[in-house]
Amino acid sequence: MKFTDGNWLTLPGVKVAHPAEAYDARRDGDTLELFAPTRPIRHRGDTLEGPLLTVRLSSPLPGVIRVRVSHFEGDAEPGPAFHVCGENAPVDIHVGDALASLTSGPLRAEVTRFPWSLRFLHGGEPLTRSAGRGMGYVRRDDGQSFVHEGLTLDVGELVYGLGERFTAFVKNGQTVDIWNRDGGTGSDQAYKNVPFYLSSKGYGVFVNDPGAVSFEVASERVSRVQFSVPGEALEYLVIAGPTPAEVLERYTRLTGRPALPPAWSFGLWLSTSFTTDYDEATVTSFLDGMREREIPLSVFHFDCFWMKAFQWCDFQWDPAVFPDPEGMLARLRARGLKVSVWINPYIAQKSPLFAEAAREGYLLRREGGGVWQGDLWQPGMGIVDFTNPAAREWFAGHIRRLAGQGVDAIKTDFGERIPHEGVVWHDGSDPARMHNYYPQIYNETVFRALDAERPGEATLFARSATAGGQQFPVHWGGDCDSTFESMAESLRGGLSLGLSGFGFWSHDIGGFEGAPPPALYKRWVAFGLLSSHSRLHASTTYRVPWLIDEESVDVLRHFTRLKLSLMPYLWAQAVTAHQRGLPMMRAMVLAFPDDPACAALDLQYVLGDALLVAPVFREDGRVQVYVPAGTWTALLTGEVVQGPQWRSETHGVLGLPLYVRPGTLLATQPDATIPDGDHGDRPLLTLYGLDDGHAATATIFRPDGTEDFTVRVQRDGGALRLTRSGSERPFRFRVAGQDTVHEVSVGDSTLPA
Question: pTM for the full model?
Answer without folding.
Answer: 0.97
